[in-house]
């Protein structure tokens, strides 16, 4: 392998240092294959069991067949065919067992996705910045919410309530040393020291989040893209993904990591200081401790203001490759918060004779404030998104430009479910009879109680979609018969094909489902907040004395919601445990991350790492060094998510190199998913500019594919890029060529279709050492050009 790398470097490809070799320009053609979600092996991609790694490492690398390892030294052997290479990046998302820990980061990933869903806008710089700011603040509230949930469990339920209640402490003997009765007034039995000891749990969680963010950034996102100057005359339609600094967000991620780490530590410190300061303010309390408490509370408020100010600073710098680092913030802010945390431990652990714990800590006010702030941020975000969408309407944009606010709302709801689930389950475990402890904050019980009505809404929507799918399948039967004229009819097979087409169309109905679910979540969440604040009782108790049907519904919703949120928490933990031990389950989680972690961390630094910040520079370096060293042209072939990486890497090339690249996409979500949900980056203008800038682009899709679809470019560009939908199955019945029934392929095995070989041959025929062939956009011919045809047809 090392010899192959060294030889490739000498012969003109990228060597170990990523630089081009010194060989003369041979004009050899290259076919670079990029797999999709889930990944595959180099042997499967190259259709050869003997492969060697040309460049890269165990995480992501470029492979060739063993016989092609030294292709640059034998250009005469590749006059009529290209050198095939496979870029394998699946280990970026589905590696070792630590990936299971990423499940903890799911709400952070969702809110980070919402950051990139802003509508397309031109010239609305301040409004765009406000959109990003609101999402960074929403991400900050999610960090505080997660740490506050850990504080609720460790400080309130365990250290304050259970350890301070004799019956609960006797039931859990491991808490005996914290109980004033069981330890006979031991050193750890005072409330402040119990809180200080329990604070190790949420503090450790904060440290774990900081460590995961730092470690994954070094492993995935620290790869620098190619350094080039931004074009001052850049076409405004061109996607922002082509900017030099788009795939290198080191400065912002480091700054946000410091702010969120500080926010977590300040949240834990507040959980210690507030109860102690409240006791010290009682009449007859020690004046010195009262003064220290007020000083510490003021310092915590100042720290919170500093954190918010850091988050509000300008976001990403994309027009240049920003290598700077705000060291004074990255280092001093977390250290100052850590110092306040230590002072809080000392202050909370100070001896206070006569101090006893009763009731709950101030969790109701904390969680209520967080819920209110999150709701207001989502509403403000919706207003900003609507203004951006109105300035440049896009009929294909998901939820009419409100996809970002809708997804942000779901991220907040997911964070609430996770925090409420762990609190409910720990409370039930500590107090199985429900008679010893005051339990978790009332708001968390109200939030759990709205889950059943929310599920009813979702089930009704799913029923409506199912009805729509059945009706659509009936309509598709005629289309299936029309696509296969002259063949003997088979009602069962026709139904299966029609149902596959109708099911694939559900992808286009997803925006409606997300919009209605998000709207219902916002309304029910607001109702839960109002109910908790106005009654200060759980729903079952608050409904006493009302109509029997109201009381019964409230009690049922409360009990069913508690059970559902507990079940969800158990399934979450079980899935994470299984993923840690089972490689296949971990691969399934990796597929989810393939879609969710394409985007850089811009709204939340604790989100799972962005694999594209490694994959896109890899592909860009490979394409740029090849075209520069050999003078040849290149076909980059991407399936599914691989087509998104291929497009992003093509945008990153210099214009001269981009004109020597042909693009083949199949099963591509570029327009169907990314164009609709991320219109500012994959909207019609961006895709049209990509079509104009590369040498040629062809796209294949099927009506049975739930992910891939046409690019829908306007005018002549549409048929120039999109081939007519491929037949699926390849044959309706049994034929001489296919004596057994052909399967319905859907999103897989595009290479099995003869059309794939035709389009691939057409693009490869355009690969010549001379200047790129002129494109023709008057149609999409399906015949393969002759070997000596240099005019091409794209």
UniProtKB/TrEMBL annotation:
Region of interest called Disordered, as start-end residue ranges on this chain: 1-25, 770-794
Positions of transmembrane segments: 130-150, 195-214, 258-277, 292-312, 333-350, 370-389, 401-423, 443-466, 510-533, 560-577
UniProt keyword annotations, A-Z: Membrane, Transmembrane, Transmembrane helix
Keyword Transmembrane: yes
Listed Basic and acidic residues bias regions: 1-19
Lineage, broadest ranks: Bacteria, Bacillati, Actinomycetota, Actinomycetes, Kitasatosporales
Entry annotated with the keyword Repressor: no
Superkingdom of source: Bacteria
Name of this chain's protein: Integral membrane protein
């Amino acid at each position: 392998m090392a010899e192959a790398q060294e030889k490739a470097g000498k012969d003109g490809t990228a060597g170990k240092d990523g630089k081009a070799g010194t060989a003369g320009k041979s004009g050899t053609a290259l076919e670079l294959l990029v797999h999709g979600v889930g990944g595959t092996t180099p042997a499967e991609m190259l259709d050869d069991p003997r492969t060697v790694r040309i460049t890269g490492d165990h995480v992501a690398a470029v492979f060739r067949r063993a016989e092609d390892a030294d292709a640059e030294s034998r250009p005469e052997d590749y006059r009529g065919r290209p050198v095939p290479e496979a870029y394998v990046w699946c280990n970026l998302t589905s590696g070792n067992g630590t990936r299971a820990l990423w499940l903890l980061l799911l709400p952070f990933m969702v809110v980070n996705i919402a950051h990139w869903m802003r509508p397309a806008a031109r010239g609305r710089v301040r409004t765009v910045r406000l959109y990003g700011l609101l999402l960074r603040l929403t991400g900050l509230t999610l960090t505080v919410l997660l740490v506050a949930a850990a504080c609720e469990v460790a400080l309130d339920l365990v250290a304050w309530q259970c350890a301070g209640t004799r019956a609960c402490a006797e039931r859990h003997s491991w808490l005996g040393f914290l109980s004033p009765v069981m330890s006979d007034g031991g050193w750890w039995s005072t409330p402040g020291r119990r809180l200080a000891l329990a604070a190790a749990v949420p503090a450790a969680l904060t440290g774990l989040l900081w460590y995961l963010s730092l470690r994954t950034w070094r492993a995935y996102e620290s790869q620098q893209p190619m350094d080039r100057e931004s074009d001052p005359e850049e076409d405004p339609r061109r996607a922002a993904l082509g900017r030099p600094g788009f795939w290198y967000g080191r400065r912002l991620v480091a700054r946000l990591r410091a702010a969120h780490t500080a926010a977590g530590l300040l949240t834990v410190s507040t959980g210690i200081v507030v109860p102690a300061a409240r006791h010290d303010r009682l009449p007859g309390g020690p004046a010195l401790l009262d003064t220290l408490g007020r000083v510490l509370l003021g310092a915590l408020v100042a720290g919170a203001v500093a954190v918010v100010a850091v988050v509000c600073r300008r976001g990403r710098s994309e027009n240049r490759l920003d290598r700077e680092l705000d060291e004074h913030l990255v280092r001093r802010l977390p250290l100052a918060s850590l110092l306040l945390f230590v002072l809080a431990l000392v202050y909370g652990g100070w001896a206070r004779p006569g101090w006893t714990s009763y009731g709950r800590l101030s969790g109701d006010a904390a969680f209520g404030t967080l819920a209110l702030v999150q709701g207001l941020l989502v509403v403000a975000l919706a207003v900003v998104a609507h203004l951006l969408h109105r300035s440049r309407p896009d009929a294909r944009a998901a939820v009419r430009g409100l996809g970002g606010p809708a997804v942000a709302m779901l991220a907040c709801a997911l964070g609430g479910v996770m925090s409420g689930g762990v609190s409910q389950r720990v409370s039930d475990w500590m107090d199985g009879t429900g008679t010893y402890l005051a339990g978790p904050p009332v708001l968390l019980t109200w939030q759990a109680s709205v889950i059943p009505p929310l599920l009813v809404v979702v089930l009704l929507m799913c029923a409506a979609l199912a009805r729509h799918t059945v009706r659509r399948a009936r309509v598709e039967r005629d289309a299936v018969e029309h696509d296969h004229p002259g063949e003997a009819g088979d009602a069962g097979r026709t139904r299966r094909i029609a149902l596959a087409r109708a099911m694939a169309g559900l992808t286009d109905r997803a925006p409606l489902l997300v919009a209605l679910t998000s709207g219902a979540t916002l309304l029910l969440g607001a109702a839960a907040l109002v109910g908790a604040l106005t009654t200060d009782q759980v729903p079952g108790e608050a409904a006493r004395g009302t109509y029997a049907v109201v009381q019964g519904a409230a009690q049922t919703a409360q009990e069913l919601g508690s059970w559902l949120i507990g079940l969800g928490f158990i399934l979450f933990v079980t899935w994470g445990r299984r993923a840690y031990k089972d490689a296949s389950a971990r691969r399934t989680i990796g597929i989810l991350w393939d879609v969710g972690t394409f985007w850089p961390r811009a709204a939340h630094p604790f989100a799972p790492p962005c694999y594209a910040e490694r994959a896109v520079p890899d592909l860009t370096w490979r394409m740029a060094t090849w075209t520069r060293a050999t003078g040849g042209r290149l076909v980059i072939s991407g399936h599914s998510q691989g087509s998104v990486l291929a497009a992003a890497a093509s945008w990153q090339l210099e214009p001269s190199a981009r004109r020597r690249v042909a693009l083949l996409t199949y099963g591509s979500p570029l327009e169907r998913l990314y164009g609709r949900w991320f219109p500012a980056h994959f909207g019609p203008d961006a895709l049209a500019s990509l079509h104009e800038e590369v040498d040629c682009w062809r796209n294949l899709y099927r009506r049975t594919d739930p992910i891939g679809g046409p690019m829908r470019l306007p005018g002549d560009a549409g048929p120039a890029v999109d081939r007519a939908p491929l037949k699926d199955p390849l044959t309706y019945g049994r034929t001489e060529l296919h004596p057994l029934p052909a399967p319905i392929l859907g999103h897989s095995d595009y290479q099995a279709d003869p059309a794939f070989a035709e389009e691939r041959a057409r693009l490869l025929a355009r690969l010549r050492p001379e200047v790129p062939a002129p494109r023709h956009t008057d149609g999409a011919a399906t015949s393969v050009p002759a070997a000596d045809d240099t005019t091409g047809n794209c």
